[in-house]
Amino acid sequence: MAELHILGQLHGVSDFKEQSSLFCRYSLQTGPNWTLICGCSEGQTVSGKPDFKKSVIWAQPLNLHYVTKGIQGWPKLVLQVSCLDSVGRSWIVGYGVCNLPASPGYHRIEVPCWVPTAVTVTDKIRQYFLGGTHQLTQTDIVNLGTDRHKLNTQSKGSVQLDIHIVLRNFIQFGIEYK
Questions:
Q1: Could you give the CA distance from residue 51 to residue 53 in angstroms, rounded to a whole number?
Q2: What is the pTM of this model?
Q3: Measured between alpha carbons, how far is 23 from 172 in angstroms, rounded to an integer?
Q4: For range 111-124, the mean pLDDT
């Protein structure tokens, strides 16, 4: 069987305008041909206050080992950046998704994030006075991309990901990499 090793870290986040602490929930989604041998495919980072550059460093380690019978359903990383205020309330301030690179070696990936926007005046007033943002009820929109064109969204900051991809035995399946 072909093997994929993902080693690296969720480095941090930048350009989010929120002043409260930020943290990230993440999960790696794969197709049915993939089996996780070692590591945890989902987790959560620590929370941290943005500095003067509007960035937070998480340095959340990633170490996963997959085996597969085919490349269909190549792993993708799904992110939810959340805000934690001084009262202890949390809400999602950004969604993001990226396909992991299929070429071996080091990769620095910048994942752009977005959030649904308030459309009505009532929603905008509620959001201004009570805080929080609109959240998705069906999170499949994030990783599948279906019906996302129907959403009104707003760009947010981005999440930086530093990873090393190690491939093994892919040549046996007719996949060449350089």
A1: 5
A2: 0.83
A3: 40
A4: 78
Q: Which pair of tokens denotes residue 86?
A: 């001084």
Alpha carbons 144 and 10: distance in angstroms, whole number = 22
Which residues are CB-neighbours of 68 under 8 A, at least 6 positions away? 1, 2, 3, 4, 33, 34, 35
String of DSSP letters for 60-107: EEEEEEEEESSSTT--EEEEEEEEE-TTS-EEEEEEEEEEPPSSSEEE
pLDDT at 10 over 60: yes
| Helix (H), strand (E) at residue 123 | helix 121-130
* Topology, domain 2-173: Immunoglobulin-like (2.60.40)
Query: How many C-beta atoms surround the C-beta of residue 36 within 10 A?
Result: 14
Contacts of 111 (CB under 8 A, 6+ apart): 77, 79, 96, 97, 98, 158, 159, 160, 161
Q: Where are the domains of the chain?
A: 2-173
Enter the tokens of residue 142: 């994030």
* Cα Rg of the chain, angstroms: 18
pLDDT at 8: 96
